[in-house]
Amino acid sequence: MPKAGITYGPRIAAPDYEQIARDAERQVLEELGLERAEDLVAKARPDTLVVKAAEVLQQADAELAAYLGDRDRALAHLWFYEQRLGLSKTVGLTNIGFRQILAKMMVGDKRGALPANLSNEELVQAAEAAGIERVENAEAKLLETAPIVFAARTRRDVAVRYMQEAVLALSQEPYGWSPDRIAEHAGVHRDLIYKQRRTARKRHGM
Fold it and tell me: Distance between CA atoms of 180 and 107, rounded to whole angstroms?
């Protein structure tokens, strides 16, 4: 990442991602018909839960498909063309996650190296040579899309955990369902069910 010889633009204040995460988790619980996380064991039927969780996943994936590209393009524009600092916090990413997005957009590989020690002019030239797109009103677009992406990923992560527990429960007695039957019931590909069952078993030391 460029350090020396750069005049940086102003930082962009980050949304309250802690509150966004809390709201997203509460929304998932409501969509799953749970008041609290503890209700999973006491109240939730796994055959119902797995369907509702799959619906949350599909909704979250649809939002990610709609907004993730716009967020990443705005993010890259602000770094390469406006040289803004603190963008990882603005979008709620770790520094590593932020660098991986830029590397993927610039060299096509999230593990790729980014140019270092460039001036503002050289950084712009490097971005243009790599085909990094300029984005009009990039700051506004980033502040619009980043919270949506963050909330969708949070909802997805929460729903996956509950879906894993439901898959594990359905795999055991008194249900004893096969992964294929669970997948058909939930309306998802069976590979996802195998993966989630494996993760849930590992979490429970099985």
Answer: 39
Q: How many CB atoms lie within 10 A of CB 115?
A: 17
What is the distance between the alpha carbons of residues 202 and 104, in angstroms, rounded to a whole number?
31
- Residue burial 142-166, b: 16+ Cβ < 10 Å; e: rest: bbebbbbbbbbbbbbebbbbbbbbb
Distance CA 31, CA 159 (A): 10
Model pTM score: 0.90
For residues 2-23, give the mean pLDDT. 84
pLDDT tens per residue, range 103-128: 999 988 888 888 777 888 888 998 99
- Which pair of structure tokens corresponds to residue 191? 């590979």
Between CA 199 and CA 182 the distance in angstroms is: 16
CB 170 within 8 A of CB 74: no
